[in-house]
Design a protein that fits this description.
- The structure holds two protein chains of two kinds.
- Chain A is of the alpha/beta class.
- Chain A contains five helices and five strands; from the N terminus they run H-E-H-E-H-H-E-E-E-H.
- The longest helix of chain A has about 70 residues.
- Chain A is elongated, with a radius of gyration of 28 Å.
- Chain B has one domain: ATP Synthase, domain 1 (Sandwich).
- Chain B contains no helices and nine strands.
- In chain B, strands 1, 2, 3, 4, 5, 6, 7, 8 and 9 form a nine-stranded mixed sheet that branches.
- In chain B, a hairpin with a 2-residue loop joins strand 2 and strand 3.
- Chain B is globular, with a radius of gyration of 12 Å.
- In chain B, about 35% of the residues are buried.
- The model of chain B has no long low-confidence stretch (mean pLDDT about 90).
- The chains are: A alpha/beta, B mainly beta.
- Strand 5 of chain A pairs parallel with strand 4 of chain B.
Amino acid sequence: MGADIKALRSSIRSVDSMLHLTTAMGLVASSKIRRANEAMIKGREYAEAVRKMTAQLTACPECRKSPFMQKRDTERTRLIIIAGDRGLCGGYNSNVFRLAQEYAENAEIIPIGKRACDRYHGEFCQCEGYTCAQGRELSEKLCADFAKGEYDRLGIISSRYVSMMTQDAEIQWVLPLEKSPDAHESGILFEPDEIQVLKAAVSEYVFGVIMAAVRESFACEVAARRMAMDSAGKNARQMLDDLQLTYNRARQGAITQEITEIVAGSGG
Amino acid sequence: MNTFNLKISSPDGNIFDDAVCGFSVRGAEGDLAVLAGHIPFVTTVMPCDCTIELDDGSKRRGHTEGGLLDVGSEEVTFFSWNFEWKD
């Protein structure tokens, strides 16, 4: 009985410290949610504005000769995989990696986020502190390599923020560009010419899409962690209640037994 | 003086979004100034100092390492990730 009580006390202490941990992580995630959501919305707006402008260019007959609009027969793929910086965020990282498994075979991987870097042995690069300068450098390199024909298509695997409760892993194909169905020749002037402007616009577009995906993925990570820590906290509280009940019963049993033994001893 | 809406846009949000009288930058074919009612066009912007003329007559100056300028019929958008105010 004594050993039982000791083991229960140690379990209660361990679950209690776990509860503290999940509460702290949940609070940290909560404090980051608003900022992460604002950054996500700004990133989306920028990417959408650049996409619209690039769509105008794809309608020009001149631009269709650009290497950025040429579909090639071979399919040498480069994939940017954006995952979280830390664990303890439910299925967030595993959903991204599960989708990545479908496409990653024979593809060249560019990981963003500590978890993705660990998995794909990439250069260390955080998702939370990902700067515009890093995004710019990456987009310029990707565009230059695509124009040189070093690879044939560029995709981004990241998470889409649906709501606080739902985040979906998805793939979006960025290059080559496709003619947008709603784009039509608008008679806009391009200086110096369509090809030069398209070259600059593609770089801006790839940059915008990367930054938007990184910001959105971070918002998903924070939301997923918040929800995971909430439910972990609930489970820990339930476990703590059950353990406390068992502990009290065992303690009461031990006291009753001791009293019985004393009474029996004095009676004899 | 006639005004138009100028937006200086970056992935971290709009750096500037207001009605202005004029906007000067260095385009692909030299320095240019956009005024209200400018014909729609798109150009690449070279690294340069930019000047914004506000509707009260005052001027604001900034620096960019380059970007894209989209002059639309209703709004002018300058896409630049590294625009910095000089004043």
